[in-house]
Structures are given as C-alpha cells and as structure tokens.
Amino acid sequence: MTLPAGVERHDFDGETSLATQGQPVYGERTDGDWRRWDPHRSKLGAMLEHGMETGLEGDETVLYLGAAAGTTVSHVADFAGPTYAVEFAPRPVRELLDAAESRQNLFPLLKDARKPERYAHVVEPVDVVVQDVATRGQARVAALNKRFLTDDGRLLAAIKARSEDVTADPADVFDNVREELSAEYELLETARLDPYHEDHLGIVARPRED
Amino acid sequence: MSNGWFAGLDPDDDAAAVEQIEAGRADTPEDWPQQAVEAGFADDEAAYYDRLHEVTMAATSAAVAEQEGADDQQLVHAVRAMADCERTANELAERVAEWGGSRYGDSGSGVEYARSLVERDDEDEGDTALRALAEQTAGLADEADSLRAYIERTAPAVAPNLSMLAGPVLAARLISLAGGLEALAKKPSGTVQVLGAEDALFAHLKGNAPSPKHGVIFTHEYVRGTRREDRGSAARALAGKLSIAARIDHYSGDRRSDLQAELDERIERIQARAEEGDE
C-alpha cells in the first residue's frame, strides 16, 4: 500500500508512526513540523495503519462527515486540498474551529450529515467522502451523501456497530450495513479496525452509477 | 439549477455571507469555486477559497455561540411564545374569516385565508381595516414559524438525547410543561407520560373519568401511529425512554445514539401485536 503524498512514517523518539505536517491539534507528539497521527485516536489513521487501499494520493478535495473536534480532519487537511468538515454537535466544534484556524483549506460547517441539502450550497463535488458519524443509520448517511462524490470518487467510512444496535452481534450489524450500502456503492475493501477501535468496520467503496 | 451560498451577495458583505452559509440550501453540489469566479464573486479559485475559509469560520463560530448560549429556560420561553403566537393567529384568523365572509362572501378560513386578503386592493376604509388585521394575523403566524425554527436549532444543544427521541419541538414542550430540564429529569416516567393532560388527570383523580393514557407525547408518531388498543403501551414505552433521555441530558450531556435503537425496537414489538391479532 502506498501512503498519500504528505503522509509519512516518521520517527518520534524511537517510535515510528504515521505523521503529517501541520500545527498540532490534540496534544499529539511532534518533531519539527511533523505531528504524529495516532491510529488509536483516528479511524482513518487505523485504516491506513491496516494497509487498506484507500486510493488517497494527496491533494484531493474532501468532504469529512462527523469531524467532531477535528482530530482526524486536521490530518486530512494537512495532506489534502479543499477539505469540508461537517459536524452536528456544537461543543466539539469549538475545538474544530481552533484546528481550522491555521488551515486555510479546512472549512468547518455546523451541519447535520443527515441533511445534505443544508450544506450542498457550500460543498463542491469531491474526490473523497470520509464518514465517521456515530449515529444510527450510517449506511443511509453514506447514501444521502453520495451526491457529493465524483464518478470515480471514494467513500472511506468507519462504521460503529454500537451506534446501529447495542444488543446485536457486531458481525451481524456489519453484514446489514454492507448489504444496505451495496445498493448505492460498490464495496472495494472492508476490514475490522481492531485493535485500534473495537467493533468498528472500515470500508472503502466507490459510488455505483445511477 | 441550485444556487451557491455566494449567489447575489456583495463580495464584501460579511453578515450576509454568514447568513447564507447558515440558512442557504441546495439539493445538489455544483462546481461552486468555478461558478463564483465566473460570476465575478472572486478573482480566482484561490481567492474564492480564502473567502470561503473566512466565511465558514465566522458562520460556524456564530452558530456554535448561538446554540451554546441556549439554555433550557430560553427554550421554555420560546416554546411558550410559539404556542401563544399560534393560538392568537388562529383566533384572529377566525375573526378575519368571519369579517371577510360578511364583506366578500367567500368561505375561506384559517391563516391561509388571512394571507390571501393581504394581497387584496382596498376600495374603502373597511377593506383597509380588515386588510390590516389580516396582515397582523399573517405576521403572527410567521413569528410562530420563526420561533419554531429557533427551537429546532437550539433544542438539540440543550437536550440532545431528548430532542433525538422526541424531536426538538416536543422536547421543548416537555421541558416547558415540567418547568425546566432538571425538573423534567426528576419526574417519574409515569408523570412524563401524562404531561399536558392535567385536566384529564385531575378529572380521573376526582373519580369521574378514566386515567389519561398520554399527554403531549400523543403528538409523537410512535403514539399516534399505534392502534388505539396499544397506544397506552406505546405511550408508556416512549415516556420511559424520554425520561431516561432527559436524565442523561441533564446529568451527563453525553449523546447516546443507542437509546433510539432501543426505543425503535420496543415500539416495533408493540405495533407487531396488531398483526398478530389479525391472524
């Protein structure tokens, strides 16, 4: 697997880790401009750490759904082009605003990922949709936001089993999500994100033609 | 074709740009950077992105401040004001309809009829007086709508779980009826179930009426959409989850998306009784 341009394995005091260059955001370790991308704190980081073929090359236009306090999206903005960060809850968005302060290509939006018509007047068509929303109906969120992807774009999603059904076996939940998602997307690769994130499924997919 | 956030904006008008980011809509994304350059809103794409960064930072910061500034008492005022505006608009609309019927003979009714009179040309002083009243009626109905929009924006910040399960407006009504989020969190779920049905409850306690099965939670689709025999069960299940949601919102503020899944399952089981009964 190749890492996108702008993401490297970097040595932090004898420990090698994924890293990007930019202002630190969440107290991560740094070495000069390089900041550690902790796969325990970031599902996309875990997907890269697992060697999933994300198709990321660097400099993409990105829509990030579920940006929360900006931990992951700050790394994405470090290596990508225009990066639109959607988050629904006001509290973490304060920190997201701090992360976006030093990143001219990061555009924070306090919006609901289940209502794309509320941000389609701002977000342009993108090469990549990254989805990390801990809400019920994660496959539906992906389907609703398919409109943003260019024909050869990629969906990179982290599905949280507990958000769909706390009582069900995660494997069953993932089967259901995979099936529902297949209506709108062709699934290229899926992998559990253990040990970094328990009961999470990483998905790489591309939109089916309408 | 949909419009980008910059459509019709003076490139230097910060306040209008912030408003457009917050309130604008489009069904599908388009190549906004290119369109903005073509429309002369920005000199080139780099300038567009610089402006977009400024404007999204300002808009998001303002939206966060508004939502965080919201507390349960503000929500109580807003939902009571909305109810006042709705009730008064409806009362005035009846008056307008009665008066309008006497003058023009049409049989319209409600706020829509009042709105239709606003456009009418005056021929005498009576027309003017009636049209002025119709305008006030429509204005009150508009005010109710904008209060509703304010509640929909702010209730999820005050009570995220309760708003998720009940919807923002019903969440605000429950908080209002209890007198605040803390008061609601302290009520047993049986009380939450009949909030808003106090008249029926006291009639029952005096011994001359059946106990009410539900109060304002009747407006929730899970109660209204359940057949009559099972509505009591549905109302009890919903009230139970709403009480838990209110307690989490008051005491911890965490978002618990699994509550929705649990409620959905309970209601599904209750509504399935109707099918079993048919067999």
Summarize the structure.
Chain A has 210 residues and is α/β, with parallel strands linked by helices.
Note the topology.
The complex is a heterodimer of chains A (210) and B (279).
Chain A (H helix, E strand, L loop, with lengths): L7 E5 L2 E7 L8 E2 L2 E3 L6 H7 L12 E4 L5 H9 L3 E5 L2 H12 L4 E5 L15 E6 L6 H7 L4 E12 H4 L5 H12 L3 E8 L7 E8 L3
Parallel strand pairs in A: 5-6, 5-8, 6-7, 8-9
Antiparallel strand pairs in A: 1-2, 2-4, 3-4, 9-11, 10-11
Chain B lengths: L13 H10 L8 H7 L6 H25 L2 H33 L5 H9 L6 H34 L1 H7 L1 H11 L2 H6 L2 H6 L3 H8 L15 H4 L6 H21 L6 H21 L1
- Structural class of chain B comes to mainly alpha
Beta-strand residue percentage of chain A: 25-35%
Query: Quaternary state, please?
Result: heterodimer
Low-confidence stretches of chain A: none
CATH superfamily label of chain A: Vaccinia Virus protein VP39
Largest chain-chain contact? A-B, 37 and 38 residues
Radius of gyration of chain A: 16 Å
Class by SSE composition of chain A: alpha/beta
Return Rg of chain B in Å: 24 Å
Helix content of chain A: 10-25%
Give a quick account of the main beta sheet of chain A: strands, pairing sense, barrel closure.
Answer: 7 strands, mixed
What's the order of the H and E elements of chain B?
HHHHHHHHHHHHHH
Number of strands of chain B: 0
**CATH architectural category of chain A:** 3-Layer(aba) Sandwich
CATH fourth-tier homologous superfamily of the largest domain in chain B: Nop domain
List keywords for this structure.
heterodimer, A: Rossmann fold, seven-stranded mixed sheet, 6 helices, 11 strands, B: 279 residues, Helix Hairpins, Serum Albumin, Chain A, Domain 1, 3 domains, histone H2AQ104 methyltransferase activity (chain A), Fibrillarin-like rRNA/tRNA 2'-O-methyltransferase (chain A), SAM-dependent_MTases_sf (chain A), Fibrillarin_CS (chain A)
